Input
Amino acid sequence: MSDTVSYTELGLANTREMFKKAVGGGYAIPAYNFNNLEQLQAIITACAETSSPVIVQVSKGARDYANETMLRYMALGAVRMAREMGSNIPIALHLDHGDSFELCKSCVDSGFSSVMIDGSHLPYEENVKLTRQVVEYAHQHDVTVEGELGVLAGIEDEVQAETSTYTKPEEVEDFVSKTGVDSLAISIGTSHGAYKFKLKEGEEVPPLRFDILEEIERRIPGFPIVLHGASSVLQEYVQLINNYGGKMEGAVGVPEEQLRRAAASAVCKINIDSDGRLAVTAKVREYLSQHPEEFDPRKYLGVARKELIKLIKHKNETVLGSAGRA
Ligand code: G3H
Ligand code: 13P
Ligand code: ZN
Output
């Protein structure tokens, strides 16, 4: 295999067909982040066993961690593993939060079937220009592109409720038509990580801004929308972590019923990273605490992988609605 490889040679699919079906079918494609073997095995096993299309995604940091060449062959291995399980689910390999043309190009050249160019922090016209440049290159290779408008709030900056950070619906038509992107990530109140909302005693998680989502949908009907920062931060894992020596006070995420509502709308890709991290950390902490004599990584990573499979099946079946849609 040469240094430059098309994703089709790896048996991967781009996201075009997946999104078309998801938008029409009222469900969302899961996009699970991974950095290592056990996470990828768990994602593929759970999605093959639930017959769910899947996007496996890699951040810039994950790509540095895992190694670019290793990732290509992991993706090839993931596809083969699914096929050996007798499953024909479509699998996309996606760059999450690409921050430059060069990084996106390098991913296209090394076998990714989809890339995100995140110009959301740039002034609007610069975001359009950069995104357009990535689309022009990626489309020559039939690789799909996700762009972003609006900035996901950080818990620490206290501007979570300010409309300026949310996607401006009046910009979406112009952005989509000028850039040619295949999907659009928006900001409607989610944020990355395990501390999404700062809640006072007795306070409930504020609802996502479905009014903004509906306005976006009205302006670009049928266009695939992506929701980042969509982990639910399941409290059973937070408690396990805290019970076994961890310290994650105040960790809170997006309630599952809100994600279900989003998945039934124009949102056709839902990004989940933190929930997987929590499941793995909870199980590793619990196992090592209960088996202090153990030092075989297969033991503690094995229980973590098993839990991750359970979690992903649950997401596909009862939250995103992607189970049985492959
Ligand atoms: O959106 C961010 C993802 O959760 C990836 O996080 O940059 O720590 O790999 P990372
Ligand atoms: P979470 O941190 O909520 O899992 O979001 C992940 C994400 O958006 C990856 O791009
Ligand atoms: Zn994200």
